[in-house]
């Protein structure tokens, strides 16, 4: 999917001209603590924005292939980071301050609002790789939606004088992957999974400890997670992994958060909450069934599960264990949303969400919010649902903390966006990989309730891990790269 003409290098002086014309009248009206955004219509078309060099960019990518929605955010015009028990109120306060002085020029009447992207870790303690909770107004936000393309350029009031240079600089991350960097060419290489029998046994032991805690009556559900590490010969290219995720999981929400040298990517089936014009939608998703894959499909070393994963070929999704697992999430989501809503409805029977390799039970909640309830209040009330934490919520969190259950980066936290009117959406960051150079690590967990079988739960995490591992293993170079390669071979470059 090629870039819209106005973003091509050859059009940069025209882009500068248009941006300068829109920016000049706004400069006098913005306070230093405020922000300016300019939205330009880029015409009809579709773009997945995967012609981006994620390995060197501060980028945020979000896609819903089935709904033809693709967003790419580059750079940071404004950034707020937080941690600790008040992280969501802190982000909310910072965003409220910003939106009060946010000038927006919708030059071509696109009707689109400028937006910030956000993400947060499962727990509220500082951790490595990504800030615990962060909100970023990107310098450039590119949106491809339902066949229409747009770009929003943003800066803080403080940095408005040099803004156009900064915006054009951010665009240099686009189109770079065409230029044959070694990292991008190494896509599709074989990944070696680093077996770690000790960690596998530790997972089984934690599941047993969770079952003991549940049997003692203090807890009803706990989500226990594990990580696997993979190693490639060359640096792993990010864009081909995202393309592979998009091709394999078109019904999921795909996300990538990158900074130079590191990327957190994934394809999640679970929405935490979406807010649009005062109506909130939230998923209660849990319970998993799957069918064993034919051996022929396991083409790579990386996708071969260790022996401990041997388990029955499939589970019945509607069995008692899966129903109880999902029922805890339903109860918690209802309890969290009830005080925030004038009216709250839920789909009656859990529906079966069918994904590529597995299925989940899902109940969808729709709530009409009371005044003054925004996206951050919804996140604070809902996170962590028992789909990633446990039941009762506080006891489960304390149990997980006491046993040092580690959740790296934003795995089982949230990723999303919020626009200047307060509408937005956050998904639960599942089925993910953390990629740094030649190394990747993937994370997955399983809900444990009375009656859970440790070996079966291990097998379930293997199927969940496969979503990211398969994309890492089967990522193909983008078409443009293949074309570049053949041009290089024939000396036409
Ligand atoms: C915690 C994960 O999945 C959650 C979402 C759906 C089903 C789940 C389950 O059946 O255990 C988990 O609650 C994960 O993918 O790492």
UniProtKB/TrEMBL annotation:
It comes from Rhodocyclus tenuis. The lineage of its organism: Bacteria, Pseudomonadati, Pseudomonadota, Betaproteobacteria, Rhodocyclales. InterPro entries: ADC_synthase, Chorismate_C, IsoChor_synthase. This is isochorismate synthase. PANTHER family: ISOCHORISMATE SYNTHASE ENTC. Keywords: Isomerase. Residues 201-464 form the Chorismate-utilising enzyme C-terminal domain. It is an enzyme of class 5 (isomerase). SUPFAM superfamilies: ADC synthase (SSF56322). The keyword Isomerase applies.
